[in-house]
Amino acid sequence: MEPERGGVVLDQAQHAASSRRLRNFPRAAAGLRHSRAPCARRVGPLAAVPPQGRRGGRSDHLRRIGDFGSDYFSTRQVSRLVKAWQPQFIITLGDNNYPSGAAETIDRNVGQFYHEFIFPYQGRYGAGAQSNRFFPCLGNHDWIATNARPYLDYFTLPGNERYYTLTRGPVQLFCVDSDKHEPDGCTFDSPQGQWFQRQLAESK
């Protein structure tokens, strides 16, 4: 468990190399403001910041997982650990569906373990959530199959679903797509980069 930061408890499941890709707000903002390098070099797929005026008070618990999308025994173990912590919601750091992001594997690799957090859920592993509590970010493996179409069809996410922001409790999340296949780009002056800068400027 990480310490509380501005009323937000960022607990996490330790799995694979997920820790390399979460960046906090100041570093993410600095990366966009001072570099034209692809955002994969400066910004991980997800940044989190407590909105101004919401510091203190209650804490919302989230879990983050990354590089998890396989039907392995270890994946089941991690999912049980994550759910035992009873998070309000789960975020992912990419590579949700190994090996190639295919439609025929996504429910087995994701829904089997986290269906009760997904809305709307139409898979075969049980009931879904009443409202969505599962917020993935795209990884390069998710892009392999037909331009990430299975991912986009499976999940219902904010915005264009490839990159987005949402607020849950006292935390605002920014999920950005750092893959070279992202049609809106991921450089400072790309459509996605400009969107990210606007969202950061408007964050309260």
Based on CA inertia axes, which overall geometry fits? globular
Strand order of the largest sheet: 3-4-9-8
SSE ordering: EEEHHEEHEHEHHEEH
* Poorly predicted parts: 1-44
Q: How many strands, what sense, and barrel or not for the largest sheet?
A: 4 strands, mixed
* Count of separate DSSP helical elements: 7
The N- and C-terminal alpha carbons lie at a distance of 26 Å
Strand content: 15-25%
C-alpha Rg, in Å?
A: 16 Å
Number of domains: 1
Mean pLDDT over the residues = 80
Structural class: alpha/beta
Helix content: 25-40%
* Count of individual beta strands: 9
Give a written overview of the molecule:
There is one protein chain. The protein has 204 residues and is an alpha/beta fold. It has one domain. The chain is 29% helix and 15% strand. The longest helix has 12 residues. The two termini are 26 Å apart.
Write the layout of secondary structure elements.
Elements: E1 4-5, E2 8-9, E3 22-24, H1 25-34, H2 39-42, E4 46-49, E5 62-65, H3 73-84, E6 89-92, H4 103-114, E7 134-135, H5 140-143, H6 149-154, E8 164-168, E9 171-175, H7 191-202
Parallel strand pairs: 3-4, 5-6, 6-7
Antiparallel strand pairs: 1-2, 4-9, 8-9
